[in-house]
Design goal:
The structure is a single chain. The protein is an alpha+beta fold. It is built from nine helices and four strands, in the order βαβαββααααααα. The protein has two domains: about 80 residues, Glutaredoxin (3-Layer(aba) Sandwich), CATH 3.40.30.10; about 110 residues, Up-down Bundle (Glutathione S-transferase Yfyf (Class Pi), Chain A, domain 2). Helices cover about 50% and strands about 5% of the residues. The longest helix has 22 residues. It is globular, with a radius of gyration of 17 Å.
């Protein structure tokens, strides 16, 4: 498999975590978002949307959008599941994943932030926008996750796959995590877990030195 990704992209980060948790190896093909490589014809031929991540499977199919990619990995490689056996818990796990992927992350995507700037918002206002949506989302997640080790159990699962990259983004944007002890517990465990360490942006081939 080949994963077309950018080291600091949280959606790429969550796919890397899913791959690592399942013990799957994918060749990471860095796509430099800062240089505009994702907008060039060569990459558009791979992903017409011009965004990361994209996953080329062993059979040659190209998958886009991190939720679809992660769902494919879960269905194709079920030996290390990301979802609970309980249907109710599965729904909770998917809810946290959707909260991150649909309600938090899109609102601080670089394209949205650039549009805010084009509409005349200064950097302080952009930062307030980012902080508002991340804080609102994490406050909800803090109430939704349980008191076990990870979000919904003793082992990391789908909710953790989405949460940890969002925390990385929160730190990048100087959003305090002090008000979220449950989230802090999950983050501390993930910092010591080999799969999360392997997937971290600092450990990617295109990380600036």
């Amino acid at each position: 498999m080949e994963l077309f990704a950018y080291y600091r992209s949280t959606s790429s980060y969550r796919v890397r975590i899913a791959l690592a948790l399942k013990g799957l190896d994918a060749l990471v093909v860095p796509i430099n978002l800062l240089s505009g490589e994702h907008r060039q014809p060569a990459y558009r031929a791979i992903n017409p949307q011009g965004r990361v991540p994209a996953l080329r499977t062993d059979e040659g199919s190209v998958l886009i959008q991190s939720p679809a990619i992660i769902e494919y990995l879960e269905e194709c490689y079920p030996a290390v599941p990301l979802l609970s056996q309980s249907l109710v818990t599965r729904a909770h796990e998917r809810a946290v994943a959707a909260l991150v992927a649909c309600d938090i992350h899109p609102l601080h995507n670089v394209s949205v932030l650039n549009q805010l700037r084009q509409l005349g918002q200064d950097e302080e206002q952009v930062a307030q926008w980012i902080g508002h949506w991340i804080t609102q989302g994490l406050a909800a997640i803090e109430q939704l996750i349980g008191d076990s080790d990870y979000c919904f159990g003793s082992e990391p699962g789908l909710a953790d796959v989405y949460l940890i990259p969002q925390l990385y983004a929160a730190e990048r944007f100087n959003v305090s995590l002090a008000a979220y002890p449950r989230i802090a517990r999950v983050a501390a465990l993930a910092e010591q877990h080999p799969a999360f360490i392997k997937a971290h942006p600092a450990n990617q081939p295109d990380t600036p030195t």
